[in-house]
Amino acid sequence: MGGVRLAAVTSRLADSAYLRACRGEPGDRVPVWFQRQAGRSLPEYRAIRGTGSILDAIAQPDLATEITLQPVRRYGVDAAILYSDIVVPVHAIGFGVDIKPGVGPVVEQPFRSGADLERLRPLDPEADTPYVLQTVRNLVGELDVPLIGFAGAPFTVASYLIEGGPSRNYTVTKALMHGDPQLFGRLLDRLADLAIASVRSQVEAGASALQLFDSWAGALSREDYRRFVQPHTRKVVDAVADLGVPRAHFGVTTGELLAAIAETGVDVVGVDWRVPIDEARRRIPRPVTLQGNLDPGVLMAPIDVVESQVRAILDRNAGHPAFVFNLGHGVLPETDPDVLHRVVEVVHDEGRADGPADPRGSS
Amino acid sequence: MGGVRLAAVTSRLADSAYLRACRGEPGDRVPVWFQRQAGRSLPEYRAIRGTGSILDAIAQPDLATEITLQPVRRYGVDAAILYSDIVVPVHAIGFGVDIKPGVGPVVEQPFRSGADLERLRPLDPEADTPYVLQTVRNLVGELDVPLIGFAGAPFTVASYLIEGGPSRNYTVTKALMHGDPQLFGRLLDRLADLAIASVRSQVEAGASALQLFDSWAGALSREDYRRFVQPHTRKVVDAVADLGVPRAHFGVTTGELLAAIAETGVDVVGVDWRVPIDEARRRIPRPVTLQGNLDPGVLMAPIDVVESQVRAILDRNAGHPAFVFNLGHGVLPETDPDVLHRVVEVVHDEGRADGPADPRGSS
């Protein structure tokens, strides 16, 4: 199926606010979506999600389709993001990963030695994660905005496999990275292959853009990031260049890494709330689209405070067309959906994306 | 007791490597100490610490004295830091705080409303925390290096009181900060008073320097930090200026806050491993001493990697006398003490502090 229809979808959406911003082209509004816009903050999500592992929900295409659509309907955001998780590929190939409610990914037998590389066979997306592709195909038929596919970037997925779960200090990860850089590199290389296979299949099934989540790369110094992580992220970015879709990158506490992240060749760089947007742009010596950067904690504030912080970000961006409004991290479960709805209104009503196009072609 | 003897101690130590560096004066070596140098990483600590709450150990001056001395003896560091905790004052006045092993500070009834301000009466250090002062007095008689006293900065202590424990997103803290800035300000003002009383008493008992731990201030955007936090930290810094001891500040992910932190008037600014030392210096427009900034996770690496990262930091500092070598965060419990010992050797053998004095007088 799909070749002709897919081409039609792609061309229909090419002029969407989100994709124009990803290319640095002026448009009539600032696009906005929210990381983790689908999920626990929405009553309609809690109503249909059930209990059990999120991995079970992801494996049901009708449910995952509906969950992906919910925030698009409610908020009128400019992009949908696939309801899935960064550990889906490693789970699907049998590494022994689950997601514990209130905890996050947990790994039964953490990655410890060269022998564990054997547990990371290549991903065959049609055979291993058919439900993901079915969800993408469902969504492409339903959506009027671009669908963002995604994968975990090699470092962040590796941190879960090595630590055995979420971590505060990444002690074991750093020990392996410095102690056996060759093995660490082989692990990240395999995880890069998994990410490549996964996002390629999502785009081939109809996703219009992709995002790499390297949420925890900001735990590293710039030199360690450049040496141990950047080459593997770049491998993923390069390997999907031929797909012609924007490639975004997300991480927190990455203020010192922004230039190094841009060096991977990504088209869109996420910025958390610690770095003002105009400063982030000055730190990156090539034209990229910036995405961010409202503090998700600010959404707990009274609405006038939220609005004023949204406006401050729009002011900092000053009409630059290469900008996608988002949060600096995921929507917190406690967030009032009405507040997010108001953020979308303010961005759409007051944001300007009418500055000159950036010289993207020359990058 | 103490007036004459204290003056003698102070003048004996005035020329110590640590205090010279805090004043920005050239010396014959780069001073080094480690945050959380006393504690679980040391076998001699585990041998005497026993089980039970750390608050009980802190309340035993002989034990706390010995624990403070252990790393000084073992490593030959250039400063001791009092074995205590940032929640000691709020615990001592009966706010209902304990420290759970493996978790951190937990609060029985978190701070929620104006009524909770009543639970924060002023601290009378001699009556409420006599054991802290006894430990300081013991140490001053024993030590050949300066003793650093400390307190939690208002924001970080507030985050524990409001969240009820350690937090990942500071959701409740930010909700209160934005939702009721007046109450939040009154809370931080009281916590500033507690910090002032505590550090004043420690210095009067003989501590040669003090450090404010605002470990989690880096969770805030710069604008929110300047508006909601900086005035209260500045109040503490100002209120102890007459003591004539260096005032240091510590936090993580504060790369974007460095100038704002320096604006509080502190003499020493901690830098985590995310910002190279020379860049940190460029970001701060007044002469301050920088303290940092080895990634504590790097201490898990093979010794040649550790040494090379220590040398890279010394190279970045390039002999600037206003520099104290430290980690970018606390010593991790898994750390091998022999590695820390080697770090001290490398810093002492290879570090240079022979650059021109900075124009501190003009700041």
UniProtKB/TrEMBL annotation, chains A, B:
Signal peptide: none annotated. GO terms for molecular function: uroporphyrinogen decarboxylase activity. Keywords: Cytoplasm, Decarboxylase, Lyase, Porphyrin biosynthesis. One of its GO terms (cellular component) is cytosol. Its main location: cytoplasm. Its EC number is 4.1.1.37. Residues 148-164 form the Uroporphyrinogen decarboxylase (URO-D) domain. It comes from the Bacteria. It holds the Pfam family URO-D. Homodimer. Substrate binds at R36, Q37, A38, G39, R40, D85, Y160, S215, H329. Belongs to the uroporphyrinogen decarboxylase family. This is Uroporphyrinogen decarboxylase. HAMAP family: URO_D. It is found in: Cytoplasm, Cytosol. Catalyzes the decarboxylation of four acetate groups of uroporphyrinogen-III to yield coproporphyrinogen-III. Pathway: Porphyrin-containing compound metabolism; protoporphyrin-IX biosynthesis; coproporphyrinogen-III from 5-aminolevulinate: step 4/4. The record marks D85 as: Transition state stabilizer. One of its GO terms (biological process) is protoporphyrinogen IX biosynthetic process. It catalyses: uroporphyrinogen III + 4 H(+) = coproporphyrinogen III + 4 CO2.
